[in-house]
Amino acid sequence: MNVITTPLEGVLVIEPRVFGDDRGYFFESYNARRFKELSGVDPVFVQDNHSRSAKGVLRGLHYQIQQAQGKLVRVTEGAVFDVAVDLRKSSPTFGQWFGIELSAENKRQLWIPAGFAHGFVVTSDVASFLYKTTDYWAPEFERAVLWNDPAIGIEWPLDGEPQLSGKDQVAALLADAEVFA
Ligand SMILES: Cc1cn([C@H]2C[C@H](O)[C@@H](COP(=O)(O)OP(=O)(O)O[C@H]3O[C@@H](C)C(=O)[C@@H](O)[C@H]3O)O2)c(=O)[nH]c1=O
């Protein structure tokens, strides 16, 4: 397992070690001890989530203002472009984004700590998206920042308009959003 830092402090790319043989492959999709040793963080995960979406579906940019969740995200079918946005007001990279392709093929994971908004767009025909979270879903604390806020300027790999939920269509601009200290 490799852990690669990103320009956003705390956001990490995880590359698992994959063992292939004539039967197929095997890899540890999560190992708490290795994760702590290599990343320096020791998350306690309380919820596992699974969503499946068609090409062009964009979910995000989501966060919880209390019960903020760290998320360890991956794709087991298809591919997505996954994005974290720094919402920590005191961070030198506040308002900046990091994006990476996560796919069933590359088996990469992204660790997004509390303090970030998160979203992704599906770039394959369908994608299954799995993630572990460090706190429980709390609808009353859910917030969203608009996916195409020019103040953030995410370069989404999109052909045309994305498919959004009603709530994501009316998400806040970063300038009006509740953020972290
Ligand atoms: C997020 C969540 C939703 N739900 C329910 C509420 C709703 O009826 C249905 C779909 O919810 P949403 O539209 O919020 O699903 P979705 O847009 O996939 O929300 C997710 O987006 C990605 C980008 C994240 O980072 C996640 O934390 C989460 O916010 O599932 C739960 O029961 N538990 C949960 O943890």
Automatic annotation (TrEMBL):
Record-marked site positions (Participates in a stacking interaction with the thymidine ring of dTDP-4-oxo-6-deoxyglucose): W137
Keyword set includes Nucleotide-binding: no
Protein name: dTDP-4-dehydrorhamnose 3,5-epimerase
Native species: Duganella phyllosphaerae
A GO molecular-function descriptor: dTDP-4-dehydrorhamnose 3,5-epimerase activity
Keywords tagged on the record: Isomerase
InterPro entries according to UniProt: RmlC-like (IPR000888), RmlC-like_jellyroll (IPR014710), RmlC_Cupin_sf (IPR011051)
Function: Catalyzes the epimerization of the C3' and C5'positions of dTDP-6-deoxy-D-xylo-4-hexulose, forming dTDP-6-deoxy-L-lyxo-4-hexulose.
Catalytic reaction equation(s): dTDP-4-dehydro-6-deoxy-alpha-D-glucose = dTDP-4-dehydro-beta-L-rhamnose
GO cellular component, one term: cytosol
Active site per UniProt: H62 (proton acceptor), Y131 (proton donor)
